[in-house]
Amino acid sequence: MKRNYFLIELIKSPPFLIFIVLTLAIVLGVIIANHKDKTVHMKEDILYIAPKQK
To answer: Rounded to whole angstroms, how far apart are CA atoms 21 and 28?
Structure first.
């Protein structure tokens, strides 16, 4: 029975709650960042033009 109390107290503790909130924020940020369909991709066939020498 004491083990159940330990888990409940662990979940209620402020450091654990802060850890859960930060984890959720990071996961949501990654999901939102990767969800964009209109991303700019560089073309691979860009030619390099050397600057004119004086």
So the answer is: 10
